[in-house]
Design brief:
It is a single chain. The protein is an alpha+beta fold and 749 residues long. It contains 32 helices and 15 strands. β1 and β2 form a beta hairpin. It starts with a strand and ends with a strand. Its main location: membrane. It is a multi-pass membrane protein. It is found in: Membrane.
Amino acid sequence: MVEPVGNQYVVARPVYSENLFDEDHEKLHRYHKTFWDHLKLYFRCSPQRVKKTALGLFPVISWLPAYRFREWILSDIVSGINTGLVAVLQGLAFALLVNVPPGYGLYAAFFPVLVYFIFGTSRHISVGPFPVLSLMVGATVTRLVPDDSTGNDTSTNTSTIDEERVMVAASVTFLSGIFQLLLGILQFGFIVIYLSQSLISGFTTAAAVHVVVSQLKFMLQLTVPGYNVPFGIIYTLKSIFSQITETNITDLVTSLIVLLIVFVVKEINDRYKAKLPAPIPIELLVTVLAGLISYFVNFEEKFNVAVVGTLEEGFQVPIAPDVGILQKCIGDSISIAIVGFAVAFSVAKVYSVKHDYPLDGNQELIAFGLGNILGGSFKGFASSTALSRSGVQESTGGKTQIAGIISAVIVLIVIMAIGFLLAPVQKSVLASLALGNLKGMLMQFKEVGILWRKDKYDCVIWVVTFLAAVFLGLDIGLATAVAFQLLTVVIRSQIPSCTVLANVGRSNIYRNRKDYTDIYEPEGVKIFRCSSPIFFANIDFFREKLISAVGFNPMRVLRKRNKALRKIRKMLKKGELQVTPVCLICMANNIQESDEELDNNSIEELDQPTNMTDLPIQIDWSADLPPGITVPQVDIHSIILDFSSVSFLDFSAMRVLQKTLKEFIRIDIDIYIAGAHEGFLDKLERCAFFDEEIKPSIFFLTIHDAVLHILLKKDIASSPKVKLMEEKDSSSDYIITLSNGLRSRECTV
């Protein structure tokens, strides 16, 4: 019963152990489904399940019939046109990161959008090339098809290398799509949870640094080979600075001007986005202006600048991936698949929360997987989403993926009809546009200081991820970062927070005894809390902390007591001890026996419970013992283990915990466990945790229940009045005011 009294409450109920609570409240024994039950349920077929599966696999069926044509179509058209223009330019720019001709970036901006329209669950992200993913594909491309080191830079050789690189990019994209599709079918959408926000931030920042370095050769127009090896970024910078005197000044000046304009206008877009009807399409304006100037001034011939050149009109014939290439890029494809999905899902989640609609991680994997399979078949490269492009689609009024289809139409027009207008655009301009989209990623350096103040573990993860990805490469760096992140989780769980609790304010609240002054600690009772799961890696740490908290090693005490009993038996046999009703009197002088003689006995015998049945008197270990016999003093009689934060206990830890509890029980210390979660007791019973020494009755609902049980037990043992009261009326409730001031309303003891 709960009685509210102002801003306080009074609770009157019995002291409950787990078993007593289950009996009083008739706990139901529910049937828990087995793995086979879940498997049967998953593969069960019914009309409703078929409909649900179809709607889940083809989300377009759900939202397209409900499309508000009059309200949304104009917004989607405007958004689609703006997004399509940005997608064209980013496709051309990010193709340079992949080390393939710019025109192939248009394929990557077209095919995945069509697939995502049918299979995707986000209404606002713009699917297509992403700089980090493009750079990862480019690293694989340069590893498998390096630059021509002979210096024979003829058009034939260049064309051959480009064809090989396109095949590698398409093959690795196809394989990454296969991995994403398989993960989606196998319901592995949860895999993104292993990439924390700190890891993703550090990784994308490192990728942005790689993008900057990789674009320097286009901005300076230098011949720099690709180095896809650990510390490759250092070799790349060394190659650039060794050729710095050969820089094409026209490309350099053009790049700097474009970068300055793009950064300034993007800053204006950010600051005044609430007042602007739509972001200023600076990429489009700069590209058009740069193309016109390059065409009329004839930069290619006069200043020997590198230009986009003629783009092939129409689509190329679909190709099958090269099996030989697939075998060499399995690891790269897995990294690309996971990073692409993680980035896209993170961006999609932002918009789903903002606009209040659900996302399906598994379906997103299927959508991106099919998109990459189709894109790779048509010689495109890996797609995900870019935050800047998705921001354009959402901020210009995009309501659904109809805007995505409109953007794909814009890309299609460029591919089929007007691609020749982009021929005079300098590659250095595209490189500058690629760098202009990295501002948000590079600004993530600010997070280091914030993370250091808020969570040092996350800060270390960020720094390690960044350094690993920068110096070891994006593929090895990502694997290193994930391994390090999981290591920090193991370390934090392997070294859990263990504290000794005390009663605060003479209430039912128990907190760390070091944090409060108004505390009460029941005499002879230690309350110990472990704030983490207990498993094979931290059970030894848990045991050490528990022993440190109580102030003695129970095994050492038990062995000392058994040695003392053995010695007492020998002295009684020799007549050196006289038994009185209250104690033992030593009749001999200078009784000594070396520890070596006692240690020669079996250790197993010393670890058994003390047995005094053959002695004429029960030994009180807290009293004075005969001369020559010393046993460590034990000043506690009960230990309460707070398991409210222990989410699981594995079998290895269970065996060690059982052994530890028995050690305490064998030296006459009562053990109680409080706050264990539901199912904990059942698991212990299944694993044969309980026996003659450890019984289920040691489990209590709360710490306070266990404390009151101990105090009542001690008061009843020491007070005849309480014992008489219990015998007189054991069936009705009664209130006992204990000597320590804690009040208990009891039914049974």
